[in-house]
């Protein structure tokens, strides 16, 4: 038997091909990610538009007032809306915390009853 040394190296065309494939993969990944993000944002905007359409249909005076205030001073109305949304988020968080505390208290009472009954 004769031992043979082999070596392999990438030629210029191979390096270009590998770089091209990697670039295509990165571009494709970025495109798919962007498309998914934009689809999610579009769904969110459609939901908001539908909600405003419902307000417009059910409460036309309210929608006229909103549109008028937006035309007069949109910055002030946006700030007011952001403050109200923060307030609502804080209320929801406090309610969730209170519910969690109630569940923990109930579990502690149940545990106390089990211990008292000797089970």
UniProtKB/TrEMBL annotation:
Full protein name: Uncharacterized protein
Keywords: Coiled coil, Membrane, Transmembrane, Transmembrane helix
Transmembrane segments: 17-38
Stretches assigned to coiled coil: 78-118
Organism of this sequence: Mucilaginibacter sabulilitoris
Taxonomy, superkingdom: Bacteria
Source lineage: Bacteria, Pseudomonadati, Bacteroidota, Sphingobacteriia, Sphingobacteriales
